[in-house]
């Protein structure tokens, strides 16, 4: 079972996600800005004791990889430059809280597959790549960027003691625990990241289905 834990706190917010069946977790947490890489790594044991359940000490876990980085919200001006097209992390970055960077990248790949397959099958010319660039950038700007910023703000600025009652997203999550229809709607919410490029094919498909399922 894969588990994701988040903590709402102005300083000690974090995301801990189980990423393997044998119990490996990826932990993402906030830190003091403007330190060196060495200083961040030296502070890791102290920060784990501060933020994680049970205040674990270094002997209680094994670090397999550690990489301090600066969170950013950026998107390339164009997903296409001549014969080069961009998708996923090559095209945009956002904070990891909410998983929209990964989900958006998968959706990019789905749209790009449709566009390239259309060209390959003679159903579209390479102008479809300009439309791919336009629509994927629009989705990042209108959906991914504001939603990921809100996820991050929610972890840092909400009062953990009242978040369930005062935050609309958390209220929906609580309600969905006893409402299968709502739970399904929330689970399907990421569908908004997808975009069907086959609508821009200039010719009809002839006994060939190329609709991507990414």
From TrEMBL:
Matching InterPro entries: FAD-bd, FAD/NAD-bd_sf, RIFMO-like
Assigned keywords, A-Z: FAD, Flavoprotein, Oxidoreductase
Cofactor names: FAD
Coiled coil: none
Gene3D superfamilies: 3.30.70.2450, FAD/NAD(P)-binding domain
Pfam families according to UniProt: FAD_binding_3 (PF01494)
Location of the FAD-binding domain: 57-145
GO molecular function: FAD binding; oxidoreductase activity, acting on paired donors, with incorporation or reduction of molecular oxygen, NAD(P)H as one donor, and incorporation of one atom of oxygen
Stated name of the protein: FAD-binding domain-containing protein
Lineage: Eukaryota, Fungi, Dikarya, Ascomycota, Pezizomycotina
């Amino acid at each position: 079972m894969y588990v994701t834990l988040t903590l709402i706190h102005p300083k000690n917010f974090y995301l801990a996600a189980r990423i393997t069946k044998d119990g490996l977790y990826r932990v993402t947490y906030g830190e003091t800005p403007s330190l060196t890489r060495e200083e961040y790594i030296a502070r890791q044991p102290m920060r784990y004791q501060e933020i994680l359940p049970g205040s674990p000490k270094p002997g209680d876990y094994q670090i397999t990889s550690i990489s301090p980085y600066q969170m950013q919200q950026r998107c390339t001006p164009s997903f296409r430059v001549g014969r080069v097209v961009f998708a996923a992390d090559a095209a945009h970055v956002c904070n990891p809280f909410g998983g929209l960077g990964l989900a958006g990248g998968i959706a990019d790949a789905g749209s790009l597959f449709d566009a390239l397959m259309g060209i390959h099958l003679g159903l579209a010319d390479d102008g479809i790549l300009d439309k791919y660039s336009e629509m994927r950038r629009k989705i990042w700007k209108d959906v991914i960027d504001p939603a990921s910023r809100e996820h991050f703000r929610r972890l840092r600025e909400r009062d953990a003691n009242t978040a369930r009652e005062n935050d609309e997203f958390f209220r929906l999550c609580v309600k969905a625990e006893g409402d299968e229809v709502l739970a399904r709607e929330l689970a399907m919410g990421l569908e908004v990241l997808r975009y069907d490029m086959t609508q821009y094919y200039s010719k009809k498909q002839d006994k060939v289905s190329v609709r991507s399922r990414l």
